[in-house]
Design a protein that fits this description.
homodimer; 213 residues; mainly alpha; elongated; DNA-binding
Amino acid sequence: MSDSETLKPGSTRRARGTQTAGPEAQQHLLRAADELFYREGVRSVGVDAVVERAGVNKMSLYRQFSSKDDLVMAYLERKDEQFFGYVEKSFAKHPGEPARQLQQYFDDLAVRASVEDYRGCPFVNVSVEFSDTTHPARQFVFRNKERLMARLLELTTAAGADDPVALANGLGLMIEGVYAASQTYGPGCGPILAAPKVAAQLIAAACSGTQAG
Amino acid sequence: MSDSETLKPGSTRRARGTQTAGPEAQQHLLRAADELFYREGVRSVGVDAVVERAGVNKMSLYRQFSSKDDLVMAYLERKDEQFFGYVEKSFAKHPGEPARQLQQYFDDLAVRASVEDYRGCPFVNVSVEFSDTTHPARQFVFRNKERLMARLLELTTAAGADDPVALANGLGLMIEGVYAASQTYGPGCGPILAAPKVAAQLIAAACSGTQAG
DNA sequence: GATGTTAGTTACTGGTCGGTAACATGTCAA
DNA sequence: TTGACATGTTACCGACCAGTAACTAACATC
């Protein structure tokens, strides 16, 4: 009862010694895994670090997830939701105007990728950390990108692009480029800020005939 | 003398038990580190794996390099030379025609990035594996990309682009995109193959007034 | 108040990591 | 032949890793 634990200010780490219900512990673990895995990498962060940040016992982790890989997959699911949440949020700003929807996503992406502690695309990162393409995490990434490309293709088609596939491919390439450049070049500098204008150029050139967006 | 070691077919691993001169061992180590670090990642590959593949003793590694980090930096130096070797090789195909030089690089890059066991940009990969931006490896990557951007800017300027910086940024973004897409989408599929056409479009649009290349 | 269930705690396993010490072995020059 | 030196070999260090076992403490239900 007399818990002498002190929470570091500004930290999301939870106090120890308190008991936590199962689903509640799961949420704490997912949140801790999200923060640590994304910032420092999936392989670099050990399960001990995750449970400590979650304020949960290690056994509780293995009661909620069968293995670290299982936790990694749950982390990816979470990131997947987050990612398409961003996408649809941008698209929702200009309903019925596919060209402007695409443009809006690049505007928003450039802003997100320019913050100081940005760590790029979580899916690219796990692809780097896992060299085995048959690993479930890699397979998940493939599906994630497939889904993104399909969504882009919907919009480029709706926008009346001369070659919707080519435009979607070009824009997909730009997205990956922004993510990578945020890590290799400095944050919020150079190429990233050029992305929206390049996207605008590609969209305009592809939709020159039919101005559907 | 009676060395019963058997070399696995197709492997570059060297036989054990033989003695190797210092600089020779260094070359074997660098080659082994290159192959393993690039294919499987810098953090994932241990020094034991490197020395085994190099056919060299672990002590020989630490006589040539002060630490694993030191070996990693040497690996990056090697990759840096290789990278700009590719760049200049493409540029050399069309001397005095900057726009065509830039285009040629994208054509060659798309081919390289489409082979089965391609593992993307080694500099992006170490940026993912090392979350600390103050790490020497990260600093090296920053300098590498700075140098690439400077070289691109030389060509876009020489090509008479309306806005050489903007074009260089756009092309730089495309390069990063090709690297990343080679890992997240399948190999030799989709967006990567679209890269040369997108690059051509960007170059043509930026150099519409003055056809210097 | 006894019981079953769940979570927390401690300690441990077997393995890998980067790095080092002590010693044996090979090669080459004098 | 002898000595010096660079190399290979074996064994080890402390630290970390993912995962588990045995036990204790809190809770709800009856």
